[in-house]
Design goal:
Shape: elongated
Order of helices and strands: HEHHEHHEHEHEHEHEHEHEEH
Bound molecules: guanosine-5'-triphosphate, magnesium ion
Radius of gyration: 23 Å
Helix content: 40-55%
Number of helices: 12
Strand order of the largest sheet: 5-4-6-3-7-8-9-10
Number of domains: 2
Number of strands: 10
Strand content: 15-25%
Mean pLDDT: 90
CATH superfamily of the largest domain: P-loop containing nucleotide triphosphate hydrolases
CATH class of the largest domain: Alpha Beta
Distance between the termini: 16 Å
CATH topology of the largest domain: Rossmann fold
Structural class: alpha/beta
């Protein structure tokens, strides 16, 4: 993640270095600082802006970062330790577009209600079922008992896929027939959790494009019937720029509380991680980092910022 962006950052520093050197050379040798005027700032950051956009960082994030950087750097003294000044400004600007929730706070929330009901939504193949299973495993490790609702009654083999996960994890999967009402499957799972005094219900749902109104209505019905305590939008890091639009539509139509960003292990660009939370002003809670049960990493804002800006 971020290899290309880091290379571009290196180029930016060379540009700034040259500007500062030229400015100081032409005046007095003793001068150790120079001011970045707006024009120089724009020309230096042009390259970086382009690199961000090419790496699927959304234009609203790019604009926000540029505005904050401009406010911090234009017409202020850029000393010879400008690298640190700029790194700090960039770190702070990107820090403002990333939202996180501490995993202990999430677990406390889950423990505050029994059963705590979590519904997974997202487009086809984004990683809902796999990451639901990883979260079930994570919750189990944290001593929370779970039941899974096979709410995807639409895609062939979806129920078998979940049952394999359930068997592997020792977690019951409540299911109906293919084609049956997914809301009733979710309802049955909630009733099962209530009668068996289980801590958490995890509801899987069928993948759908955000433009598919029938399937969106089905999600709304599940939501109305099962009354989830939180909705997790599973976003695929590899979807590129579309992920922002998807997140906005799912949030508007269904309401999203957290994002799991799947497939971050195979994303070389990093645009989704910098954009998806800001698009809906909701935290990324986990990164999916592979296909096995342990490949679910609590999202850490400082870790992401370190990856990009640690010198
Ligand atoms: N490398 C990697 N692969 C992942 C990750 N999460 C999911 N996958 C893979 O992505 C593919 C799709 O995952 P699913 O969990 O079936 O996706 P889904 O959203 O449930 O798909 P539908 O039910 O068809 O809408 C599978 O091959 C998963 O193994 C991840 O974090 N990293
Ligand atoms: Mg699925």
């Amino acid at each position: 993640m971020f290899d290309f962006l880091k290379k571009k950052l290196g180029e930016i520093f060379k540009g700034v270095e040259k500007t500062v050197n030229d400015a100081t050379k032409s005046v007095e040798k003793t001068i150790t600082e120079a001011k970045l005027d707006r024009k120089t700032f724009d020309s230096i950051f042009w390259n970086f802006e382009m690199a961000l956009l090419e790496n699927n960082v959304s234009s609203e994030v790019v604009d926000n970062v540029k505005l904050e950087l401009g406010n911090k750097l234009v017409n202020t003294s850029v000393k010879r330790d400008f690298k640190k000044v700029i790194f700090d400004a960039l770190r702070s600007a990107f820090g403002n577009v990333l939202f996180e929730v501490k995993i202990d706070d999430f677990l406390a929330k889950v423990r505050s209600k029994k059963p705590f009901i979590i519904m997974f939504v997202g487009i086809n193949g984004s990683g809902k079922t796999t990451n639901l299973s990883k979260l079930a495993s994570f919750l189990k490790k944290n001593k929370l008992s779970c039941v899974i609702a096979a709410g995807d009654t639409f895609r062939a083999a979806s129920i078998e896929q979940l049952k394999i996960h359930g068997d592997n994890l020792g977690i019951k999967v409540v299911n109906g027939e293919y084609g049956c009402d997914s809301a009733s499957v979710a309802f049955d799972a909630v009733k099962h959790a209530e009668s068996s005094k289980l801590d958490v219900v995890l509801i899987d749902t069928a993948g759908r494009l955000q433009s598919d109104t029938n399937l969106m209505d089905e999600l709304l019905k599940i939501k109305r019937v099962a009354k989830p305590d939180c909705v997790i939008f599973v976003a695929d890091s590899l979807t590129g720029n579309d992920v922002v639009e998807q997140a906005k539509v799912f949030d508007k139509k269904i309401g999203v509380d957290y994002v799991i960003l799947s497939k971050s292990d195979v994303d070389s660009k990093g645009g989704a991680v910098l954009s998806v939370g800001y698009a809906i002003k909701k935290p990324i809670i986990f990164l999916g980092t592979g296909q096995s049960y342990n490949d679910l990493k609590p999202f850490s804002k400082s870790e992401i910022l370190d990856k990009l800006f640690k010198q």
